[in-house]
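Inputs:
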Amino acid sequence: MSRWISRLTLVWAVTTLSTAAACAQQPLRVTSPDGRTVVTVRTTDGGLFYSVDRDGEKLMTPSRLGFEFRGAPPLLDGLRITGSQRDSADETWTQPWGEVAKVRDHHNELSVDVEETGAPRRHFQVVFRVFDDGLGFRYVLPAQPALQAFEIQEELTEFSFADNAKAWWIPSNRPRMDRSEMLFSESPLSVLDSVQTPLTMETRDEHTFMVIHEADLVDYPRMFLAGGPGTESRTLRAALAPMHDGVKARERTPFSTPWRTIQIADRAEDLAPSVLGLNLNPPNVLGDADWIKPMKYVGIWWGMHIGVWTWSSGPKHGATTANTKRYIDFAAANGFGGVLVEGWNQGWNGDWIANRNQFSFTKPYPDYDLRGLARYAREKGVMLIAHNETSGGLQNYERQMNAAFSLYDSLGIHAIKTGYVTDTLANGDSHYSQTMVRHQRLVLETAAKYHIMVDEHEPVHDTGERRTYPNMMTREGARGQEYNAWSGDGGNPPEHETILFFTRMLDGPMDFTPGIFDILERSANGKPRAPDEPRVRTTLAKQLALYVVLYSPMQMAADLIENYQGQPAFQFIKDVPVNWERTKVLEGRIGDYVVVARQDRDSPDWYIGAITDEDARTFQIPLDFLTPGQKYVAEIYADGKDADWLTNPLPVDISRRDVDATTTLTLRLAPGGGQAIRIRAAG
Amino acid sequence: MSRWISRLTLVWAVTTLSTAAACAQQPLRVTSPDGRTVVTVRTTDGGLFYSVDRDGEKLMTPSRLGFEFRGAPPLLDGLRITGSQRDSADETWTQPWGEVAKVRDHHNELSVDVEETGAPRRHFQVVFRVFDDGLGFRYVLPAQPALQAFEIQEELTEFSFADNAKAWWIPSNRPRMDRSEMLFSESPLSVLDSVQTPLTMETRDEHTFMVIHEADLVDYPRMFLAGGPGTESRTLRAALAPMHDGVKARERTPFSTPWRTIQIADRAEDLAPSVLGLNLNPPNVLGDADWIKPMKYVGIWWGMHIGVWTWSSGPKHGATTANTKRYIDFAAANGFGGVLVEGWNQGWNGDWIANRNQFSFTKPYPDYDLRGLARYAREKGVMLIAHNETSGGLQNYERQMNAAFSLYDSLGIHAIKTGYVTDTLANGDSHYSQTMVRHQRLVLETAAKYHIMVDEHEPVHDTGERRTYPNMMTREGARGQEYNAWSGDGGNPPEHETILFFTRMLDGPMDFTPGIFDILERSANGKPRAPDEPRVRTTLAKQLALYVVLYSPMQMAADLIENYQGQPAFQFIKDVPVNWERTKVLEGRIGDYVVVARQDRDSPDWYIGAITDEDARTFQIPLDFLTPGQKYVAEIYADGKDADWLTNPLPVDISRRDVDATTTLTLRLAPGGGQAIRIRAAG
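Outputs:
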């Protein structure tokens, strides 16, 4: 029995009474273009609340809006709505690259003017945009005498749900774990403690899917979500990543927060491609930037993770001139656009995580001929990708950034992979604080000046920046392949990528680094790895399927290049594009399976990627998305006979068959398996 | 106890002893009777470790054993094995009541003698018992000069798993939430923070199920499990519930800890009935106690939860003489053994949670004629069940206990329902500390003296006490039906009971209080409850099935008795037994569904309970467990046409058909539905 019984009853009574009494302020409503989603904004007892209905049923119950400041009274009570404006839009814009070419921005907007009834009579707006696929809202604080420079202690935004939906989550704010590289859990939202976004939820009753996230995060901390108190609440609250002194944001009016977004879908399959956040970011400021080129790449990388090479110099140094030439030759011979080299620059020797300021971003190790290799790569039509690990030493990086990017530009190196391996910045600010958000935006803007594309590891999460800066290519920000090399928990379980697709991948591209073929990779003792050792927990066919399932405009073939020699399955990696015209999720259940079809941006060809968790599954896939009348050849990479992620991961059956829009393919996936299909237009 | 030692065991023992004495530390092994499970104990660098293999594969990797004391050096390093003893047993004993009549205790035992190599040269044993269905181990600290009175700061027991198995868990040790009434989450064990036991896990590779728990908890704190640090470890550590000063246990040698248990099964269906913990508790000390009688009961209870009545006196007081007579009459007329009355005793008025010492356990409110009602009940062949809410005021209860129990005994009241609604005891000790464990054992022993059965709410979890004290009938200790009346998260989701069966129910009986028929119960405003309000989230047929699925020897028909009037489905509640000869789990998937068959202890009849989560399901159930040649009539209570837990929960189709051991029944369960079947021997 709970102690809260009588208090709960009291709360209901009070809510009922005050709702009945507070008729002074008429609620404002704004509806999605299809009429299904209705957002209602109202004040109740001087508090400002929004709620959301879907198809006439409550989806979100009244959820409070407001701020708590340091050194100023909160903006929370004694509020009244003084006016409102409406707007709408219906336009379609084109992504320079992406998982879809065309994006429709069709929404209705309501701006609500709010003012304190008493001193200091501060005023602000909350702007709501309601789309068919969800909604976003942001606070806008205009310049005003009573609100100039200010410090945000808490953003008091609430997300209160009618249903105790099931959520797939990773924790935030656990001690010494300010990171996103974790496995997912599944809980009723009422027991969530502190979690990261995107937070994907499925209601228990109406089978509605919802995703809370944010968009257009520019100069503000990242948002987490906090549940409770207790384990019986359906309200999550915004929880901003703090600076070392506990202040969340230092701002000056006029100021707007990022958009708080709630994506809504009837089916899991409708969650992707997710464009709500892109629509809430400002358009491209770089114009037709022909230096931005999605690409596949190989690199000197996995060898360090499995202990064959080191980042630091010495006898096992991976980033040598000779080794890099091998990779450039391989890339050129197999149509890869880039070669990533990690450990090329000075600063890796010693404790590079503790000594965050020791990295040089211009000085190579003596055994790495930066200029010669850059020239060699250019001559072969390949681009070097410069690795810039900062270990969180932001100032050290910012000091060198212009010189480094200028050097890279001069050498034809137009892509960097940045890294921020640290839980906390040197001054104690959170990895996800306003400080880091500002820094990563500065890197992006500076890189654009030098025509450099950015692949960001240990990033702040993606909030749609790529719309405005299309050189923001891809990020890590989740548990990638590398955990299969060394993780203390044995590697990513077979279900991992089937959850990633419906959670992390909804915020943007991920540099997951698929394509490990040496799945039964040797241990330190030379034997195949034991089941409890870290290892790849997929079949080889599933590694291929990940190229289609997990979108990235920079997609790595992550294994040592010698492991691709003599492998017929490597052909799929050579063929698969990284830029798509259309994306269709054909089947999907969070944590269980995904089947996705994507059409190449540059040809009429389609590709299918199908993955499953530890259970074998069979799918019937009608190819009705193909062009009617057109003939195609399907090149099928399926799990071979008796394939099994644990005991027999390597067999891949490669076959071809003629197909057209009337064909239905049967896809059989092994336990922990997958299937990759190229559907090539014939004739 | 009939105990035998095999010749082979003797040979092992001799060999082991001489080996241990002769050379460096050879590992010791003990195997389950079926040879599938092997426990290995060894020292490595002075640390003591155990590991577990199953079918020749690692199940648990080396896991450390030891203690940290306050005011004494830890017992952790510099250890060596000095000897060992072996034993085995194969006996079958009978439960006086339970989910099965016969329990086989078949195990091999290894006692390992361990000593510090340096001063203070303390010595102890770790005793392992390995069964076919899992293992248990306990520390035994003999009396010795260097270890007399001592304070345990931490028990350093580890549970390290080869596989990053999926775990179903509820949190522990969250601030202000020291309770067990929570919804379950699902995570890879590597990301677990602090969780409660029983902790049920499913491996990702071999489909092995494991449950960590404890047995024979007498004078020691309850064990939680702590993961990490970080989110990449497959090791859980024992975390004992603390007293206010941080000390976990105050003990004196000779002393034994509770058993730490790891139940192992190949299939979810094999997890129940779970008897490992019972086998690790001492046998019945009460003998043939004919005053212990499993029973069904009704009570003055749900009315308080839905706000119709109050516990406290006043105009809505539930525990009135007239009301109680109504319940006694109903119980007598319908074959119920007991009537629970809450709010009968003085102390409920005012803040009874804060004022823990205001309860009287002997003085009734003036409008409750305790003696007259007890007599009235006796005359009708019904027993009053006395409610004893303590709100954690242990001393107040202990002071009155003998007087109260003596009074109850004199009135023929031989059952109590205790309650401990509080997160922390008055002195700051945890609800689950050694203090509470001692108290609850004292209540149990004292109750036995007065021939009183105990139903404990807000209990320390069940560790098999009912074997030793069969008057320990049932407990709460999980989210029960009451949350559907008032929980802030809207009530138990449809999957809840399908998880309970494979988690909480593995430790022992639960007083879940099924049988709410008024599923569309009215809100305060008189309208049917809205989907986001707290409500029962099952069909009515599922409420019936819970009587079979969720075992309790005291099983309530929880609704207001008027809600059973004119309900044909009530017949099943009247028929269903609370004491079983056999239990067979026919189908089960954690969080999805359970189908269980149980045979009545007192007749040849069988009963089937089937429940599902929010998905509709169909099962084909061969009745091959029935006696061949015997004719039966199946009385089937199925979800009616278009039944659905959310929109249409009430329709129940009641039908009969002749069946025998060759019949296969098709069970169709609605979303959130269930099915209850009585299979009555015919002729």
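Remarks. The two ends of chain B are 40 Å apart (CA to CA). Residues 1-23 of chain B have pLDDT under 50 and may be disordered.
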